[in-house]
Amino acid sequence: MTRLRILLVALATISVAFAVAASKAAPAAASRVGSIRPAANMLEPRSGHSATLLPDGKVLIAGGMRRNQDFYRSAELYDPATGRFVPAGDMTVQRVGHIAVLLPSGKVLIAGGWVGRGCTDSAELYDPATRKFAAIGKMTTRRARPSATLFKNGDVLIAGGADHDGPASSVASAEIFHPANLAFQPTGSMHHARVSHTATMFGDGRVLIVGGKGESLSASAELYDPKTGRFTETGSLAVARYKHTAGVLPGGNVLIAGGSDDRDWQGKLSSAEIYDVHTGKFTTTSPLNESRFKLPDEAVQLVSGRLLIAGGSRQVEVYDPESGRFVLASGQLSDSWHFMSETRLKDGSVLLAGGYPNNDRATAQTWIYRGP
């Protein structure tokens, strides 16, 4: 073979390689799903707050913190019709890391959280008709960052959480809130103490509890059966994690994504796995594009069945169950906001609000995600 022919063959090989690389890169650049854009600021900068979609389509933003040990009693309402926030009254207690659950009555249960350097067992109800909060009976124990799950009959399962600041603060106990008599009643305890875990309800009413931190970081999972009032252990995560997010996929399986190992800020995770409701086992799936933790407990399910993952990074990602991959949304947040909230609005768009970056100063900024 002459030198000229060798050179021509080499150039042809290089051209083919570039063409293949370009064909692989092109779909990735074009595969972004939906987009985010800035929206109106909240009245106060907040992180660790709650965000609850009300029956009229407005969103109740309650509590949270401006910075460490600077917590809010105040609440505000986001109105999608105007794109603005307005005051919504004050809670009876300033709190962060609390639960907020919309009850069948249209009122919102607010309970627990940190109230300074300690945790609280206090609870209250928000009435959208009067825009007022009213104290009700106390939980059976103090809890900060527990999980809360609304059953079809209106009862609420509240599980785990921390009962004080510091190490070994998580609890294994659980309780049921009965809206009919505004009472809290103990139920069976989990097998492991947990804080910053996730709780996801299946169509049959059972609740999957995953991960969290007790005396050590947990890879365990368990199922709560409201018919028996008991927890039973199920499969274990491939990667122990807490401060992660979870969401129901079409078909009933559950996606678990992100979080952190026991190194916290230095141990942020990009890995993700899926719990199979039929086999009770976890299997790994494609990872997030970016490692992230301090996420909303529940990933928002979009109209398409995809799951939105926001917080802990400037990027917003969408999990596509058909491809088994995470796809980035167009646009970016202004920083890697931790403990922000995400709320699906009635038109299918998602309100992303607040959070704090790599310091403790919260933001009042919000964004709207729109996409399939």
Explain this structure to me?
The chain has one helix spanning 3-30; strands spanning 35-39, 50-53, 59-62, 65-67, 70-71, 74-79, 84-90, 99-102, 108-111, 123-127, 132-136, 147-150, 156-159, 174-178, 183-187, 198-201, 207-210, 221-225, 230-234, 245-248, 254-257, 272-276, 281-285, 300-301, 307-309, 317-320, 325-328, 341-344, 350-353, 366-370. Strands 1-30-29-28 form a 4-stranded antiparallel β-sheet, with no helix packed on it. Strands 2-3-6-7 form a 4-stranded antiparallel β-sheet, with no helix packed on it. A 4-stranded antiparallel β-sheet has the order 8-9-10-11, with no helix packed on it. Strand 26 and strand 27 (325-328) form a beta hairpin. Residues 1-30 have low confidence and may be disordered. It starts with a helix and ends with a strand. It is globular and about 45 Å long. The protein has 372 residues and is mainly beta.
